[in-house]
Structure formats: C-alpha cells, structure tokens
Amino acid sequence: MLLAFKEAIKDYTTPTNKTLSRDLTAKISSYVSFLIECRPLSISMGNAIRFLKSRIAKLPHALSESEAKTSLQSDIDRFINEKIVLADKVIVSHAITKVRDNDVLLTYGSSTVVEMILDYAHELGRNFRVVVVDSRPKLEGQGLLRRLVAKGINCTYTHINAISYIMHEVTRVLLGASSILSNGTVYSRVGTASVAMVAHAFGVPVLVCCEAYKFHERVQLDSICANELGDPDVILKIPGKAEDHLKNWADSANLQLLNLTYDATPPDYVSMIITDYGMLPPTSVPVIVREYRKEQLWI
C-alpha cells in the first residue's frame, strides 16, 4: 500500500490555484476510500495512512512541488525500512534468545516475523521442532509448513481441533499479531485466542511477535464489536468432499454463516510481547503507544 502511495505521489501534479498539502491529502483520502470499498483497512494500514497524512500536513510551504514530492517519497521509504524491515530484524534478534536446543515451538497460521525467527534459529544450528497449527478456511499454515520443511526444519502439522492433544509436548508458543491494542489485547487471525488459552491452561509460555507500528490506542474486549467478515461461502468448501448439505444456505431465512477474520486474545493469556522496542509484558503496551505519540506518527 505504501509503495502504491509512493507511485501516486510521484505521478501527482498540483492543480492550478490549489495548494499541494490540501489537494494531495484529499487525493490520498479518495484512494483510501477505494481501498476500504475493496476490503476494510487493517490497523497497521490505518497507522501508516495517518503517518503519511501527517507528513503531508507538515510540509513547509516554501518547498517546491518537486522538493515536496521527493521529501514525501523519502518519508515513505524511511517508514518501510525503519518500522517494518529493520523492526522485524530487531524482533528476531530479541526472540532468538528464547529459542533453545530441544525446544518444541508451536505457531499458528503463518506469520512472516515468526518464520524469520525459525529460519534464523535453524541457521544458528539450534536443534528444535516446530508444530504448525492450522485452521480452515485459509489454511495459511500449509505454506509455512512447506517452506520450513524445504529448509530442513523438523515439523509437525495439525489442525486447531488437535491443539489440546499436542500442547503437552510444546515448550513455547510463538504467535504473530495483526495489532496490539492499548489494553494489551492481541488482535490477530481468528483462532489465535484459542491457541493462547490452551497454552495458558498447560502452563506453556505464549510469546507474541509484533512490530510497534501495529500498536493502537483502541481498547477492545471482544471480537464482535469490531471485526472483518470474510466470505461465508468459503467455510462451506471442504477439500475432497463433494456433498454439500448447506449449498443453498442463503435461501434459508433462519440461517446465517459467520466467517470472522480476526479474534481478540486477552492479555492474561500472553506471557510476553516481543517488539522492536524490546521484550515487554502486555501491561507495558501503553508505554509503546505513548512513545509513538511522541514520534507524531499518529495525529
């Protein structure tokens, strides 16, 4: 999304009798409206858009159009490099200290930063096994499983319904996150809360890896008050099963199919959050939010 905005700024020309900051902000808002029509924005996308709009609003009026556009493109590149690329590398450097020989590491779905941690641990010669837990309808874990096995990492694959069966073998749980809310709630792919709760019941530490740009000042106590609804038809399609008892479900006024994209994991079930600011407990999340306010990434 940021790269698309960078191209849009590159092609932008200020109309006659208009100022760049106001007109470009309006153009960005129209692009955002189009994105929202296609799919609701993730929290991290919203934060990045606020960052970009704040940079546009603070452009000095003395700058020429070409200088202003160059400055904005440079700001976007710096955000990508510092808040995303380098942030992931810092998270990996922190998390690798928690991976030891003979560990059994469980992860759910497919998280880029978690995969980077596992790859780096394997490169360092750590002896460990990965349990990849997956769930329908997206089955994101299958792609992660293929990549890990291709690199020679010892893996076990299971669906989320077997989580309580496999958890007694696990020494640590590594999870990704779509966002961390200001009360410490982890907002992530649906099913994450179930994994964390089962791990907590077994006394297994739950480590959540999340870049600081995904933190948000919002408070959310459940998954219903705000969520993204996926296509209800995809939960009907079961690979290898031809018979479909719910084929004409839309014709029934008494039946609704609910396909939630995210869920909210209470902070009580999270042992530690690993960010580019360091490793901290969920109770310290408001500190990260305040730090981001100081950097004026949010307005």
Automatic annotation (TrEMBL):
Membrane spanning stretches: none
Major subcellular site: cytoplasm
Localization of this protein: Cytoplasm, Cytosol
Entry keyword annotation includes Nuclease: no
Any one annotated GO CC term: cytosol
Any one GO MF annotation of this record: translation initiation factor activity
SUPFAM superfamilies in the record: NagB/RpiA/CoA transferase-like
Superkingdom field: Eukaryota
Keywords from the named record: Cytoplasm, Initiation factor, Protein biosynthesis
Assembly mode: Component of the translation initiation factor 2B (eIF2B) complex which is a heterodecamer of two sets of five different subunits: alpha, beta, gamma, delta and epsilon. Subunits alpha, beta and delta comprise a regulatory subcomplex and subunits epsilon and gamma comprise a catalytic subcomplex. Within the complex, the hexameric regulatory complex resides at the center, with the two heterodimeric catalytic subcomplexes bound on opposite sides.
Similarity section: Belongs to the eIF-2B alpha/beta/delta subunits family.
PANTHER family the UniProt entry points to: TRANSLATION INITIATION FACTOR EIF-2B, TRANSLATION INITIATION FACTOR EIF-2B SUBUNIT DELTA
Name of the protein this chain belongs to: Translation initiation factor eIF2B subunit delta
